[in-house]
Structure formats: structure tokens, C-alpha cells
Specification:
Layout (H helix, E strand, L loop, with lengths): L5 E2 L2 E2 L7 H11 L4 E2 L2 E2 L9 E5 L14 E8 L1 E2 L16 E2 L3 H18 L4 E7 L23 H14 L3
Parallel strand pairs: 1-3, 2-4, 5-6, 6-9, 7-8
Helix pairs in contact: 2-3
């Protein structure tokens, strides 16, 4: 069954307008959920979440003590796997590597940066992305979902380390 955890009226600043009014309307329409005014967009001091995007590695260059501070997009570690792309002659990542080890090492490096941001008020992060998406080769898996492009056990270990940080 689908569920909605957070309303996000705008992605980045694409079409973003009247942000304070739209956040107010959204909160009045559904007061049971959080509102992220613009994931990575123009920032106004409204809503429940301050959401920045930073590629490729995590950074926290804005902070708002009155809201949840998140990194709505980061990552973009690219690796092309021949025979598993949407368009064989095209594709890109924010950073690009040719081996599982290099992709995994970079993912772990970025995750360790996330760990260092938590004590500074950082609450959540969204890695871009779980699978390749057309010509974006940033996925943990290929476009056809047939190949995992990094070492799953190492990714699991660092992700558990991050989630266990909050259990202290």
C-alpha cells in the first residue's frame, strides 16, 4: 500500500513560486505530515525541513536550528557496465569509475563524511540513486537491475554504522 511521509511541493527550483503560500496551504490541507518546501531549491524559512543538494560528496553549507536539516541529494557515483545501459553510446555520473572497488571506496568515503555531519545537526541524506536512470549511470544497480555495481557487504556495513549512530 502506498504511503506519503513528507510533502515536497518543489524539486530544486524548477517551477518554484509562492513558496511560503504553498507551504501554508499544504500544511493546512494535511497537517499530519511534514512539508519539505523545496528539495534542493530556493530556501525560505518555512516548512519543516531545510533540504540541500550537493554533488558529488556530502556537505552541509546551510543550517536552520528550527527545522530538520537534510541532504536531499548527493552521490552520483557513476560506473558504466557494458551491455546494461539504456543507450550504449551515452551515459554519465558526477564522478565516474571503472571498477567495483573504486565505486565502493568512494561510497564509503562519502558515508563517513555523513557520519561527521550528524553531530553538527544533520538528520538525513538521500543517495542518488538506487538504479541507473536512462543516461545517468549513478545507480547502485544498472538500468536493467541485473548488476549491482559495488560491494554490497561493505555498503551494508557503512549504512548500518550510520543508522546505529542514532541508536546511541
Amino acid at each position: 500500500m502506498p504511503s506519503i511521509g513528507v510533502w515536497v511541493p518543489f524539486n530544486e527550483s524548477w517551477g518554484q513560486f509562492k513558496t511560503p503560500e504553498i507551504v501554508e496551504w499544504t500544511k493546512s490541507y494535511d497537517p499530519s505530515r511534514l512539508v519539505n518546501p523545496a528539495s534542493g531549491g530556493n530556501h525560505y524559512p518555512v516548512g519543516d525541513i531545510l533540504d540541500i543538494h550537493n554533488y558529488p560528496d556530502p556537505e552541509m553549507y546551510f543550517y536552520d536550528a528550527s527545522r530538520v536539516n537534510v541532504l536531499g541529494e548527493y552521490g552520483g557515483i557513476g560506473r558504466k557496465i557494458e551491455g546494461h545501459t539504456w543507450v550504449p553510446s551515452q551515459g554519465w555520473g558526477y564522478v565516474e569509475y571503472d571498477t567495483e572497488e573504486k565505486v565502493t571506496d568512494t561510497y564509503v568515503e562519502y558515508a563517513n563524511k555523513l557520519l561527521n555531519l550528524i553531530p553538527r545537526g544533520f538528520s538525513a541524506a538521500v543517495y542518488t540513486q538506487t538504479t541507473d536512470c536512462e543516461v545517468e549511470l549513478n545507480g547502485l544497480m544498472t538500468y536493467d537491475r541485473e548488476v549491482v555495481k559495488l560491494n554490497e557487504e561493505r555498503i551494508r556495513e557503512i549504512n548500518l554504522k550510520i543508522s546505529n549512530y542514532f541508536k546511541k
